[in-house]
Write a structure and sequence with these properties.
This protein is of the alpha/beta class and about 290 residues long. It has a single domain, classed as Rossmann fold. Helix content is about 35%, strand content about 15%. It has eleven helices and eight strands. Strands 1, 2, 3, 4, 5, 6, 7 and 8 form an eight-stranded mixed sheet that branches. Helix 1 crosses helix 2. The N terminus is likely disordered.
Length: about 290
C-alpha cells in the first residue's frame, strides 16, 4: 500500500475532462480524499486528492437536500462493498477483472490482489489520459493493468478488450459501479449483453442499480432534478433486479446493507432521514453467470 502523504501532481497539460460522468467520478474522488483523513478509513485511496488538484475541482453534487448530504459517505460505503466483492472474486478464481466505466477508480493500485490478477479498465480515452497523468507511472498492485480507451456507453469495446489481452475462456469479475444507471436502457442492454457473451463459467458481476420504485420519492426526486440541471440523469431504473439480471444470464442478489457493520456504523447519523423508500433507493447488486 503506497503512503498517502504524496506530493501533489501538477495540473494536467489539458486538465479539461469530458463533461457529465467525469464529474461523477470526481465527486467520488472527493469522498475518497476526505476518507483518507479518518482514523480508520474504509477506503484508502492515496491518489484521490491528486485527481482533484490536477482537475482544479472543488465543487460537489448539485443541490442541498438530504440525499446530497449523505452521498459522500454513501460513495465510500459503495466503494468498500465492491472492493470486498472484487477481492473475494479474485481469490475464488476470477483472475481477470474488468472495470466498465472505470472513471478514476484506483483499485488496480490500492487493493491487495492475489498473484496473477489482470485488471482491465474500459473508459473514455480522455479520462484514462488524465488518470494516467496523475498516477505518474505508479506501479499497480495487481499482476497486470491494461487500459482500453473506449467509452463503454457509446462504443463497441469488445474487440478492443480482446486486443488488450482479455481471454473470454477464463472466469472474469466484472464491475459496473455507477455506469449503468446513467445509460439509456438500450445502451444498458448492449453493455450487459456484451459482458455476458464474453463471460466464462464462474464469472461474476457487480453493479449499483437504481430502484425505480424510489426514484419519485421525496428523498430522491429533488436530487434527480438538481442532477438534470447539470445534464446528468439516472436513465436506467428497475424494480426487480434479480428478475432483470436472470433474464440476461445472471443469478443476482441484492445486498442487505444494514447487515454490514461498516454500513450501519457510517450511515447511522442519517437514520432519521432514511425511510424505507430512501434506504432502498439503490441496489448494490452482485451475481454469478448462470449455468
Amino acid at each position: 500500500m503506497p503512503d498517502i502523504a504524496r506530493p501533489q501532481s501538477p495540473p494536467a497539460p489539458d486538465s479539461t475532462l469530458p463533461d457529465g460522468l467525469a464529474r461523477v467520478a470526481l465527486w467520488t474522488a472527493a469522498a475518497h480524499a476526505a476518507e483518507c483523513h479518518r482514523d480508520t478509513p474504509y477506503v484508502l485511496d492515496p491518489w484521490a486528492a491528486d485527481f482533484l488538484h490536477a482537475a482544479g475541482f472543488t465543487s460537489g453534487p448539485p443541490g442541498d437536500g438530504p440525499l446530497q448530504r449523505l452521498l459522500p459517505d454513501w460513495a465510500v460505503v459503495r466503494t468498500r462493498f465492491f472492493d470486498e466483492h472484487l477481492s473475494d472474486a479474485a481469490r475464488s478464481g476470477c483472475r481477470q477483472v474488468v472495470l466498465l466505466g472505470a472513471g478514476l477508480d484506483t483499485r488496480a493500485f490500492r487493493l491487495d490482489w492475489p498473484t496473477g490478477v489482470h485488471v482491465f479498465e474500459v473508459e473514455d480515452p480522455a479520462v484514462l489520459a488524465f488518470k494516467d497523468h496523475v498516477l505518474d507511472w505508479s506501479p499497480p498492485s495487481c499482476g497486470r493493468r491494461s487500459v482500453v480507451g473506449v467509452d463503454p456507453a457509446t462504443g463497441a469495446w469488445a474487440e478492443e478488450l480482446l486486443a488488450a489481452g482479455f481471454d473470454p475462456r477464463r472466469p472474469t469479475a466484472w464491475l459496473c459501479e455507477t455506469l449503468l444507471y446513467h445509460l439509456r436502457p438500450h445502451a444498458v442492454e448492449a453493455v450487459v449483453g456484451t459482458m455476458t457473451e464474453l463471460s466464462a463459467p464462474g464469472s461474476t458481476f457487480g453493479a449499483e442499480c437504481v430502484n425505480a420504485e424510489s426514484a419519485s420519492s421525496s428523498f430522491v426526486a429533488p436530487f434527480l432534478e438538481a442532477l438534470a440541471a447539470t445534464g446528468i440523469a439516472w436513465n436506467w431504473q428497475l424494480a426487480e433486479p434479480q428478475r432483470w439480471w436472470a433474464g440476461h444470464g445472471w443469478d443476482a442478489r441484492v445486498a442487505d446493507l444494514f447487515t454490514l457493520p461498516y454500513v450501519v456504523q457510517r450511515l447511522s447519523p442519517y437514520l432519521p432521514l432514511l425511510t424505507e423508500a430512501a434506504a432502498k433507493c439503490v441496489f448494490l447488486t452482485t451475481g454469478t453467470l448462470r449455468d
